[in-house]
Design goal:
Layout (H helix, E strand, L loop, with lengths): L17 H9 L4 H8 L6 H7 L5 H13 L3 E5 L7 E5 L1 H4 L2 H12 L12 H11 L10 E7 L2 E8 L2 E6 L7 E5 L1 H8 L5 H6 L3 E5 L1 H8 L11
Parallel strand pairs: 3-6
Antiparallel strand pairs: 1-2, 3-4, 4-5, 6-7
Length: about 230
């Protein structure tokens, strides 16, 4: 019996629906998570590998090539002294952010979601964007800095608007350092800050009352009924 040759060519739905075509573009395993990791800005190949530990270098190369061919991702070389190649979303690629945020909020309602799985720092930041409730932020004016490994991030809430990016946050009210999943769990009330501090998983410096005001803004959506 002759076996069909196995190729890396992705299968297509051959359906004119825009949803079907979107799945043609980003429905391959890992593709949407690669997009997720690029939402906060350009990343090097090694950075993407580090934050997607279950993804092999070979498959990451395939996904980046596919997303680049589709016009969702592009490569460019940073100016000296960095002079390294990075991957970033195109203008059209960045339009996928609301999709990622809505899927994150929708997925968080699943009774089967396991919050103990690893979480990248970018996932932490996007989770805060997804779960932000302006109605709970009245009168809150606070800036939080995060340090996760070698990465620096910040989030500010002012006038019931949340902003957050990768980078330093001079003058932050409080700084949280540690594992992104643990930090996110603490903000959502899944684990207590004293417990995380005792275990050495998270450290806090700065205004703890400001941190409490910040955390009070966020609440996970209710789980869907099975």
């Amino acid at each position: 019996m002759k076996l069909d040759k196995i190729t890396n060519k992705p299968r297509r739905y051959e359906d004119a629906c825009g949803t079907a075509h979107a799945l043609d573009l980003i429905g391959e395993r890992w593709a949407l998570l690669v997009i997720r990791e690029l939402i906060l800005g350009p990343r090097r190949f090694g950075d993407l590998r580090a934050d997607l530990p279950g993804l092999s270098a070979n498959v990451l190369t395939q996904r980046l090539e596919g997303l680049e061919a589709a016009g969702i991702v592009r490569r460019r070389k940073l100016a000296p002294p960095a002079s390294v190649q990075v991957y970033e979303l195109t203008d059209w690629g960045r339009e996928a952010e609301p999709i990622v945020l809505h899927m994150g909020r929708w997925g968080a309602r699943s009774p089967l979601q396991d919050p103990n799985f690893p979480l990248s720092a970018v996932s932490m930041m996007l989770s805060l964007r997804a779960m932000f409730d302006p109605g709970r932020a009245d009168g809150v004016d606070v800036t939080i800095a995060f340090r996760c490994g070698d990465g620096a991030y910040w989030v500010s809430v002012r006038d019931r608007v949340l902003r957050g990016e990768r980078g330093e946050a001079p003058g932050a009210d409080v700084t949280l350092a540690g594992d992104p999943g643990a930090i996110t769990g603490m903000i959502y009330g899944l684990r207590s800050l004293p417990e995380l501090e005792r275990e050495g998983i998270v450290t806090v410096s700065g205004d703890r009352e400001a941190l409490a005001r910040f955390a009070a803004i966020f609440e996970l959506p209710p789980k869907a009924c099975s």
